[in-house]
Amino acid sequence: MADDLALATRSGPGRLLIAVYGIFAIAATSRSAVQIATRFGEAPVAYLLSALAAVVYLLATVTLAVGSRASRRVAFLSCAVELAGVLVVGAVSLLVPSWFPDATVWSDFGSGYVFIPLVLPVLGLLWLRRTAGPRRAAVNPGSG
Amino acid sequence: MIDSLAVALTVLALVAAAWALLLVVLDKPLTLETKLTLGIAGVVVLLEVGLLVQAVIGVVRLVGLDRDISGPTFVGYLVAPVLVLPLAGFWALAERSRWGASVLLVGCLSVPVMILRLHQVWAGHG
Fold first, then answer.
1. Where on the tree of life does the source sit, at the highest rank (chain B) (predicted)?
2. Chain A contact set for B94 (CB, 8 A)
3. Of A44, B80, B89, B110, which shows the fewest CB atoms inside 10 Å?
4. Mind listing the pLDDT tens digit for each residue in B66-82?
């Protein structure tokens, strides 16, 4: 059963979802590594948020790919933190731009990344919900 | 930077992406047993070799550069596509439905984006 769950989580649309998460994990990790290593003092808040975003994307990628019960719980939390992050940081970066002298992945609701950071956690949560039920195969296999 | 190489790699990546899209539309899994899937594998391998060449040339030219650009960012955009493309390839091959080709599509589309950023950093707008 556990293997079925893991397989369902990383198959079909889930495979694409994890791939996009992986690309964002690599992008966010490299970006934040360069920022913190070369100019941390310029915008510590933005750069710490970049690092947090990187950790969350890495965590979501790995836990979705593993797909066990426990790791799906962590994936759920990662997606939730991500959604909260992109909404809060997006709003604050528009209202108080001076707090963010340099952009993060989540600034302006992820507009620098064609709003994928905003869409990704929503898709992640939907995918986790869709693959959660014991009779998931019977629920509208063609839709979504 | 080497503009002709960048253009060639961008075109190659877009060809591979279009090919992947075709596989998604035709609902063909990436089996590496049909001409259609072997063909895209060939294009992707060629693209990977080109990206490796770009990485080597890029690092050599960065070492000899007397302007001030963001070195770590530049190297990041040289190395990232070299890593992302094979990762996307193997992740795509493990899927036995049309979604495998969709992974390759996204992986291939990320290459021109990274090449574009690479050249922005080289021009000093990094």
1. Bacteria
2. 15
3. A44
4. 888 888 999 999 999 99
